[in-house]
Amino acid sequence: RLETATDPTCGPRTHEENRRHNRVRRFTHHEKQAAMSEYLETEVLILGSGIAGATAALELADRGVQVTVATRAVEPEDSNTLWAQGGIIYRGEGDSPAALVQDILRAGAGHSYPPAAQILAQEGPPSLKRLLLQRAPVNFDRTAEGELSLALEGGHSMPRILHVADYTGKAIELAMVRAVQAHPNITLLTGHTAVDLLTPSHHSLNRLAVYQHRSCVGAYLFDQASRQVRRCLARETILATGGLGQIFLRTTNPIGARGDGVAMAQRAQARVINLEFVQFHPTTFYHVNAPNLLISEAVRGAGARLVNADGEPFMQRYQPEWKDLAPRDIVARSIHQEMLAHDLSHVYLDLRSYVSQEEILHHFPTIRQSLLPYGVDIAKDLAPVVPAAHYACGGVWVDEWGRTTLRHLYAIGEVSCTGLHGANRLASTSLLEGLVWGSRAARYVVENLPPALTIDSADIPPWRSNDLDDPDPALISQDMSAIKHIMWNYVGLARTTKRLERALSELYHLETEIERFYRTSHLTDGLIGLRNAVRTA
C-alpha cells in the first residue's frame, strides 16, 4: 500500500503523482493575485463560536494574542450552546469538588477519566465566576433574597445548577458573543465553513514535510457568500465545532451539528475515541409536524414525572432509587423499553399534576411557548416525548490542556473527548467543560505560542476548483436522509451486532459515492456537511 498525500480537490495521490504534479504546475499572474486575496494569516484560528470557542478567544485576546474565529453559521451565536436549556454547574450548599467528582463518575458508568473529573470540579466554579459573573456577565436567576438560585438535575446529589429560566445556553452565548464582537484582538468570520484542516504532511508542496511530526497549520475555509475557499494559516488551531446529532433522524442539535470537527480531525489522522457513547436525551417533544424540541431535564428536577397515556408514572419500575431523576442513559433506555413493551410511539411528561402553574410559567416559559403552536400547553396538558440523540461523549482525544495528537491542534467542547463524560454525560457538565477547557487551552497556547508560522505559506497551495459541476441539492438531501435513517435504525438506543454490521456495510458504500460526488462538484456548505456526516457516522 502506497502512502498518499491529499490534493485539495482531487483527493489522494501517490508520491510519484504528487512529485510530477508539483514539478509541472505553474501559477499565472492572475492566479497569484487571486490566491493572495484568498489568503489569511492569524496567530490562532478557532473553528466554532459556542461557549468553548468564545471562551478560548476571549482568554487569548485578553492576553494580547490575535485571534480569528470562524463559524459556518451566519449568526455567530447559532451554536449548540444557544440551545442549551437546563443550566451550568456551580457549587451547591455544602458542596465540594469530591462530591461533584463522585456524581460525574457514577453517571459515566465506569468510563469517566478521574483526572478530568477532578479538573472540572476544582476549576469549574472559579472559572464560571471569573468569566460568566465578571468578564461577560450573565443574569442568572436569583432567589428573593438576591442569592444565586440553584436547581437540582438528574444524577446530581444536591442542587448546584445555575440557570436563566429555561434558556441558560442562550443567555450565556449572547453575553459571550457580545464580548467577542467587541474585542479589538478578535476577527470574527461568519458564514465560513471549514473544509479541512491544513496539515503539511498532506498538503505541503514541499514533499520533505512528510518526514516531520504530524501537525496542523490552519484550515481551508469556504466563504459561503463569495463561494471562494480561503487558506487560513495559523500558528495554533483550536477545534470548537460542537456535536454530531444531525447524523441521527431524531436529535436535539441544531442543523450545523454534523460532526464536522470529528471528520476533519480523523482525516488529518488525529486520534478519535469513545464515539460509540452517544447520549440520547430522554425527553424531546413528539409531534409529526414538529422538530425534536428539547424539554429540559430541569422540568423533572422541578418535579415532573414520566407517565403513560393513562397518566401513570412508570420510572419506579425501571429505577426504584432515582425514579425520574436517574442519569439520562437510564431514563432514555427505560422510555425505550416502555415503548417496546406497550407498542407505543412515545410516552408523556406530566407537569400539570406535579409542578405549580406559577412555577411552570416562571421557570419554563420558552418550553411552554414552543409547544403551544402544536396544541400542547404544558401547564394543562400531558406533553408527548421521545428520546433523541443529544450529546457526543466521545470525540477528538485531548489531554488536560486540550492538546490533540497533532502538534499545534487543540480541541475543546463537545468535539473533544477529555474523558470527563465516560459513557454518559452528567447533566449540565457540558457548558462547564467548554468553559474550563477553553480557558485551559488558551493558557497553554499563550505560554507556548510559536514566534512565527511553522511552515512557509508558499508551501500550502490555494484551492483549485476548475471544471466542476454545481452539486444537485436533491442528491445531498437524499444522501443525508439515508445517513440519518441508517444511524437511527441500526445505531440508536438499542444496538446489536447484526445491526451494526448492516450499518457499516451501507455507510461504507454510501461514503464511496459521496466522496465521488464531492470530488466532482463545486463546494457548498451542504456538500461539505454531507461528506463530514458520513465519515462521522
Overview of this structure, please?
The chain has 537 residues and is of the alpha/beta class. It is 37% helix and 16% strand. The strands form five sheets. Strands 3, 4, 7, 8, 9, 10 and 17 form a seven-stranded mixed β-sheet that branches. It is globular, with a radius of gyration of 24 Å.
Number of strands: 18
In DSSP terms (H or I, runs of 4 or more residues), the helix count works out at 17
Distance between the termini: 25 Å
By secondary-structure content and strand pairing, the structural class works out as: alpha/beta
Q: What is the overall pLDDT average?
A: 91
> What would the principal axes of the Cα set say about the shape?
globular
Strand content of the residues, in percent?
Answer: 15-25%
What would you say about this model in short?
It is built from 17 helices and 18 strands. With 537 residues, the protein is of the alpha/beta class. The strands form 5 sheets. Strands 3, 4, 7, 8, 9, 10 and 17 form a 7-stranded mixed beta sheet that branches. A 4-stranded antiparallel beta sheet has the order 12-15-14-13, covered by helices on one side.
How would you summarize the topology of this molecule?
Elements: E1 4-7, E2 11-14, H1 15-24, H2 29-37, E3 39-47, H3 51-62, E4 67-70, E5 88-89, H4 97-107, H5 114-135, E6 161-162, H6 168-182, E7 186-189, E8 192-197, H7 200-203, E9 218-223, E10 228-239, H8 260-267, E11 272-273, E12 278-285, H9 297-301, E13 305-307, H10 315-318, H11 328-341, E14 347-350, H12 357-363, H13 365-371, E15 383-392, E16 395-397, E17 409-411, E18 416-417, H14 430-448, H15 473-490, H16 497-519, H17 525-536
Parallel strand pairs: 3-4, 3-10, 4-7, 10-17, 16-18
Antiparallel strand pairs: 1-2, 5-6, 8-9, 9-10, 11-16, 12-15, 13-14, 14-15
